[in-house]
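Worked Example 4.2. Consider the chain below.
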Amino acid sequence: MKVPKKPIVHTMTGERYQLARVHYKVHNRNTIVRTFRSLRCMDFQVPRQRWIWNYCKEAADIGLEVAWNDVPLDHIPVILGAFFFKNDHEGFFNFNSFQRATKGISFFAERLPRSVLEVTDMEVYNKLFDGPVEHATVHAEVFDRNPSPKSNNVAWEERVALIESSGLQNEEKYKRLIEDSERHAKKPLALIERFQTNFYTDGIEVLETGLRFREMIATKHWMGNKDFSFWDMVQDVLKQNPKIVDSMHPS
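Applying the procedure from the previous section yields the following structure tokens:
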């Protein structure tokens, strides 16, 4: 397998540069603006009508690869994300890495309750960069010009629910679930993907795991294995941890 000569692009805070957009329902725009104004890590940029989240003050200890005080002075300020109001009822945050996106979801959920600003969906670009990136326009180029349909996860989850509620015996039910999981996981990962975050029910850890898997798949693709899928990754994990198979089998 031929490995590309160019290194993968990383952010100034150490994560791999991979585009993400987090979508929100806006329930109280005035409260959101007041909260943003009260945070010393937030600034409003009039020309682009956006709120930028900086790596400093309240956001200094969010736990990125490079500590805020280790960022070179000539690269300060580091913008972690940019929030845009689409209208009085919708908004979104653009991020340059999956880790920044999950840190941002948690950071703002602590300061803005769901009744004010509610995270819903997430869009991701399942590709790594190995060359110069035009940061000012890249999210618009990817997400605005290539609107992605929602993931088929919902349809698959409905299928799983039907199997679970069926009158099948455990062994047959387990077999059906495995078959459905295999078909779903073998599907090619879309270049631009949109899916529900399920943040309020599952917490941030499940989302972090899903994004970490996507980054691993994107790395395999970047290295030349274009057909590598979720299924292949799961098989690799099971080979390395055979005890997981035993724990998954019904008693």
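The first strand starts at residue 20 and ends at 26. The longest helix spans residues 204-222. Compare this with Example 4.1 before moving on.
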